[in-house]
Amino acid sequence: MHSFARRLHGEVKETTDKPTKGLLLNGGWRYDLSGWVMDTFSFRGQWRELRRRTIALARLRPDEQVLDVGCGTGTLALEVARRVGGTGRVTGIDPSAEQIARARSKAARRHLSIDFQMGVIEQIPFPEQTFDVVFSTLMMHHLPAPLKRQGLAEIARVLKPGGRLVIADFTRKQDRQGRAARHHAGGSSIDDLTALVQDAGFIQIASEEMHPLRFSAFPGAGFVTAHKG
Ligand SMILES: C[S@@+](CC[C@H](N)C(=O)[O-])C[C@H]1O[C@@H](n2cnc3c(N)ncnc32)[C@H](O)[C@@H]1O
Fold it and tell me: Which helix (H) or strand (E) holds 162?
């Protein structure tokens, strides 16, 4: 990125990306811009609706400790921070230095205190039983199958007993080549996601699907909610 653009957006890449077996995404403000364009003109607002539904499913309470794994540029975490208020705490982790820098600058501009850190689902950088709620939004399709299992075990570790997990992910399996494959490893069916969550020992599992609207290029998504036993 140009140094002028970096200054304009208050984004300075502080450290190198965290190594991961997942598909890391970069882009910072360009990710947000392209996401807005795609959502507005191709998805008919269904990406925004997906975020809204994800947050609603968590039934957040004002004082809760919340983690967003694979937070990207932090858009969901910003919304969550408004819900849990000053007594709650919101944390976001992502392996991409550029996404975390962008998330921090967005939070600073909105005067929201959110702890955005570089981190990976392979080893979530928090002690066990830290969080009431963990979100994973459009991130599972970035992970190879064994890492999905490892990541869910890590999420269970950092959740408090009775804590809630909310996953939103694409449901259409997309086998892609070349550049596209670097951004999208392919979604999984809602049944596969549910089975993974069950295998990780979660209880009270529920799921629902979000189908594409007419004339929308949105690929279809699913939500899985669960509790740590
Ligand atoms: C499609 S983006 C979704 C970002 C954000 N949750 C959203 O809804 O806009 C997927 C994110 O997962 C991150 N990611 C990839 N591998 C990861 C890993 N091992 N641990 C945590 N996040 C990872 C990517 O860097 C990327 O920011």
Answer: strand 159-170
Nearest to 169, CA basis, from 211, 223, 225: 223
Report whether pLDDT(188) > 80: no
What is the residue with the minimal CA distance to atom 16 of ligand 1?
22
Ligand 1 centroid vs 83 CA: distance in angstroms? 22
70-115 pLDDT, tens digit each:
999 999 999 999 999 888 999 999 999 999 999 999 999 999 999 9
What is the average per-residue pLDDT within 45-66?
A: 96
Q: pLDDT value at position 105?
A: 97
- Tell me the best of 142, 147, 218 to mutate to test the pocket of ligand 1, counting ligand atoms within 8 Å of each CB and taking the most: 142
Gap from CA of 173 to ligand 1 centroid (Å): 17
Structure token digits, residue 42: 């191709």
Contact 190, 198 (CB under 8 A): no
**Is residue 54 in contact with ligand 1, taking CB distance under 6 Å?**
no
Is pLDDT at 126 greater than 80 in this prediction?
A: yes
What Cα–Cα distance (Å) separates residue 22 from each residue in 59, 77, 119, 136, 140? 29, 21, 12, 14, 9
Residue 19 is classified by DSSP as P
Angstrom distances, CA of residue 144 to CA of 82, 149, 177: 33, 9, 16
CA of residue 71 to ligand 1 center, whole Å = 6
CA distance 98 to 81: 21
Mean pLDDT over residues 22-43, rounded? 93
